[in-house]
Specification:
single chain, 565 residues, 16 strands, Enzyme I, Chain A, domain 2, 47% helix, eight-stranded parallel beta barrel, alpha/beta, 24 helices
Length: 565
C-alpha cells in the first residue's frame, strides 16, 4: 500500500494511465528522396485517420458527432496541401513540413469571423501533434478520450493539463507533487473525482495499466488490491453514495439559520459546462467563474466572439441567477503556452492577474467587451483579481467605462449598471477594505492566496504545508477586516476560496458576518444542511471568542469542540 495525502474524497478503482511530458521536438532538415518522405507523411496521416475511426466506433451521442467532424477535417485535402508542398517543392523532412504546414492552416482558422470555424483551430493543432508523433514513432495519449475507469498518475498536473482531461472516464487522480489547494485538487473536488497527492516517485512505482484502488479521503493507494480490500472499499463507496442520496432532500431549500439569518450559497466553476453542477446542486448562482480556463483551453488568445459565446451560454443557462466572472487571472502557477511571461524568482508576488491586464490593455478590453455584451443576457458581474491598490481599481474602472462608451456608440446592448467587485486576496487590501469598499460594488475573499501571502507559505509546498492554514489567527482577523470594510459601505462580502466550503469553518465565517459562500458545487448541499441547523446568535458568540485566540491549534480545537457540543 502507498500513502499520500487525500485531497478529494471518494473511492476509485481503475487502471493506471501515466501522464508524462511529451517530447515532440521537430528537427528541420533537407531531404533527397521526396517520394519516400511524402509516403511517410501519408502513412502517418492514414494511421491517425484509422485511430480516429476506431474512437468513433466506441463513442455515441455528442462525442461521436464531435469526432466525426474531426475526421472530416482530417480527410480534407486542403488540410495537407501546404505540408505536401513544403516536402515536394522546398524539400524539407515530413515532420518539419507538418509543423509548418499545419501551423499556417491553424492561423487561417483562428482569423475566421465564424466562431465555430475559429474554434476548430485547436483540433488542427491536435491533429498536427498526432501526425508528428507517428512520424517520430512516439506514442501520444489522447487525454480527451480515455478508457473507462482510468486513474491518471503524474508527477504534477498543470491547469492546462487538467483542462484537457476526459473527466467522464476518470476514476481517480494521483500525483507526486501538489497540495490541498493546488489546481488539480480543486478540479478533482469540483468534479467529485477521488484524488491523492504527495506520492513519492509515483510515476516510477506505478506502472501503465496497473490495477489500483484509491481512497481519496485517507490518501491510501492499493496496488493490485486483494479481494478483501476490494470488498471493504466497495462497501465504503456504497456508504458515500447513500450519504449523497440523503442530501437530496436539501435541494431547493432556502439557506438560512434557525433564527432566520439568510446566507447565499453559490458555486465556483471553470468552464460553461459546469453550470450543470450548479443547477443540479441548487446553488443560487456562480460566485466565481474562472475565465482563465477559456484561455488555457485555447491554442491562442480566445477572440471576443469566442469569449462572448461562453459567457452568454452561462448567463442564459442560469437565467437570472447571479454569475460573477473573474477577469483573466494568470501568472503565479498558471501560464499560457502562447504568452511568454517573464521568469521571476517569486512569480506569486510578481507579474500576474490584474497587473498583466493593465499592462496589456487591448487584451483586457477584448475580455471586458465580451463580458459586457453577455451581460445583456443575464445577471453578470465583473470581479477583478489580485487588486492591491486603489489606483489599480480606479484605472480598471476607467477602462471598463471606455469600453461601455465604445459599445454605446456601436449600439450594442449591455447591462449599464453591471456590478464591479474585487477579490480580497492580499493582506494590504483586507487592511484597506473600508477604503476599497467606497470604490466598488462587492468583495469576494480569495482565501487560497490570502493565506499564503499572510503566512508567507507557498500553497503547494509539501515541506511547510502545516503552516498553510485557514485557522491562523492573522488570517481570521484579516477576513473580519474585509467583512467590516464591506458592511461599513453597505456592500456584500463573499468568499470564493476553498475555505468557504470547509464545514468546520462555516460557523465561524457566519459569525464573522460573511454574506455569501461560493464553493465547489458538490459541497453546496452539505453546507446548506449544516447552516439550517445553526443559530446566527451562537455563531456570532463563537466568532467573538475565536478572534481572541492566539494560535491556529486553539482555533481549530475550539471549532471542533463547538461542533460536537
Amino acid at each position: 500500500m502507498l500513502k499520500g495525502k487525500g485531497v478529494s474524497n471518494g473511492i476509485g478503482f481503475g487502471k493506471v494511465v501515466l501522464l508524462k511530458p511529451e517530447d515532440l521536438r521537430v528537427e528541420k532538415s533537407k531531404i533527397d528522396n521526396v517520394e519516400e518522405e511524402t509516403e511517410k507523411f501519408n502513412e502517418a496521416l492514414n494511421s491517425v485517420i484509422k485511430d480516429t475511426e476506431e474512437i468513433i466506433k466506441k463513442t455515441s451521442g455528442t462525442e461521436k458527432d464531435i469526432m466525426q467532424a474531426y475526421l472530416m477535417i482530417l480527410k480534407d485535402e486542403t488540410l495537407t496541401e501546404q505540408t505536401l508542398k513544403i516536402i515536394k517543392e522546398e524539400k524539407y523532412n515530413s515532420a518539419y513540413a507538418t509543423e509548418v504546414g499545419f501551423n499556417s492552416i491553424t492561423q487561417i482558422f483562428e482569423n475566421m469571423d465564424d466562431t465555430y470555424l475559429a474554434s476548430r483551430s485547436s483540433d488542427i493543432l491536435d491533429m498536427k501533434k498526432k501526425i508528428i508523433a507517428k512520424l517520430l514513432n512516439k506514442e501520444v495519449i489522447d487525454f480527451s478520450h480515455l478508457p473507462r475507469n482510468t486513474i491518471i498518475v503524474a508527477k504534477e498536473m498543470t491547469t492546462s493539463d487538467t483542462a484537457k482531461l476526459d473527466l467522464n472516464n476518470i476514476a481517480g487522480i494521483v500525483t507526486e507533487l501538489g497540495g490541498t489547494n493546488s489546481h488539480v485538487s480543486i478540479m478533482a473536488r469540483t468534479h467529485e473525482i477521488p484524488a491523492i497527492v504527495g506520492i513519492k516517485h509515483a510515476i516510477q512505482v506505478l506502472r501503465e495499466k496497473d490495477f489500483i484502488a484509491i481512497n481519496g479521503t485517507t490518501g491510501e493507494i492499493f496496488v493490485n488490491p486483494t479481494e478483501e480490500e476490494c470488498v471493504e472499499l466497495g462497501e465504503l463507496k456504497e456508504k458515500l453514495k447513500q450519504e449523497k442520496e440523503e442530501l437530496e432532500k436539501y435541494k431547493n431549500k432556502e439557506t438560512k439559520t434557525i433564527d432566520g439569518h439568510k446566507i447565499e450559497l453559490l458555486s465556483n466553476i471553470g468552464v460553461p459546462e459546469d453550470t450543470e453542477l450548479v443547477i443540479s446542486n441548487t446553488a443560487e448562482g456562480v460566485g466565481l467563474f474562472r475565465s482563465e480556463f477559456l484561455y488555457m483551453n485555447s491554442e491562442n488568445f480566445p477572440t471576443e466572439e469566442q469569449q462572448f459565446m461562453a459567457y452568454k451560454k452561462i448567463a442564459q443557462k442560469l437565467q437570472n441567477k447571479k454569475v460573477v466572472i473573474r477577469t483573466l487571472d494568470i501568472g503565479g502557477d498558471k501560464d499560457l503556452k502562447y504568452m511568454e511571461l517573464p521568469k521571476e524568482q517569486n512569480p506569486f508576488l510578481g507579474y500576474r492577474a490584474i497587473r498583466i491586464c493593465l499592462d496589456n490593455i487591448a487584451l483586457f478590453k477584448t475580455q471586458i467587451r465580451a463580458i459586457l455584451r453577455a451581460s445583456a443576457f443575464g445577471n453578470l458581474s465583473i470581479m477583478l483579481p489580485m487588486v492591491s491598490s486603489i489606483e489599480e481599481l480606479r484605472e480598471t474602472k476607467d477602462i471598463i467605462e471606455d469600453v461601455k462608451k465604445e459599445l454605446e456608440k456601436q449600439n450594442i446592448a449591455f447591462k449599464k449598471d453591471i456590478k464591479i467587485g474585487i477579490m480580497v486576496e492580499i493582506p494590504s487590501t483586507a487592511i484597506m477594505a473600508e477604503e476599497f469598499g467606497k470604490e466598488c460594488d462587492f468583495f469576494s475573499i480569495g482565501t487560497n492566496d490570502l493565506i499564503q501571502y499572510t503566512v508567507a507559505v507557498e500553497r503547494g509546498n509539501e515541506k511547510i504545508a502545516n503552516l498553510y492554514t485557514m485557522y491562523n489567527p492573522a488570517v481570521i482577523r484579516l477576513i473580519k477586516s474585509a467583512i467590516n470594510g464591506a458592511h461599513k459601505n453597505k456592500i456584500k462580502c463573499g468568499m470564493c476560496g476553498e475555505s468557504a466550503g470547509e464545514l468546520l469553518y462555516i460557523p465561524l465565517l457566519i459569525g464573522l458576518g460573511l454574506d455569501e459562500f461560493s464553493m465547489n458545487a458538490n459541497k453546496v448541499l452539505k453546507a446548506r444542511k449544516l447552516i439550517l441547523d445553526l443559530k446566527y446568535s451562537e455563531c456570532k458568540k463563537l466568532a467573538e471568542d475565536i478572534l481572541k485566540m492566539p494560535t491556529a491549534e486553539e482555533t481549530k480545537e475550539k471549532l471542533r469542540h463547538w461542533r460536537q457540543s
